[in-house]
């Protein structure tokens, strides 16, 4: 099965799921660097560090006023968290997420800005005491 088919399947499964309440910390920063230059219409989402143990940062540039959402799913398609769902202006942004109750494993994020959708994998490695 090709990766994009698996992601589509996960998204179809998650559409029927109810958002579970999770405890996690988010911090959101606008304008972490200069505004994006004109020209490229391609939106890129960067995650750092990946894999991560305590916190992961999403960095992205919005090229026009858009409704932006970032949603995290587990590998079985269950919705874990909606990190963002709001209207954002043309700007560079970063969003920090500290999951507190999630288990180690692979997670899929779906980034949506206007008509653009991006998906990616993030790997959580919990520290053992």
From TrEMBL:
Origin: domain of life: Bacteria
Residue ranges of every copy of the Secretion system C-terminal sorting domain listed in the record: 48-122
A Pfam family of this chain: Por_Secre_tail
Signal peptide span: 1-20
InterPro entries for the chain: Secre_tail
Keyword vocabulary terms for this entry: Signal
Name this protein carries in UniProt: T9SS type A sorting domain-containing protein
Organism: Rhodocytophaga rosea
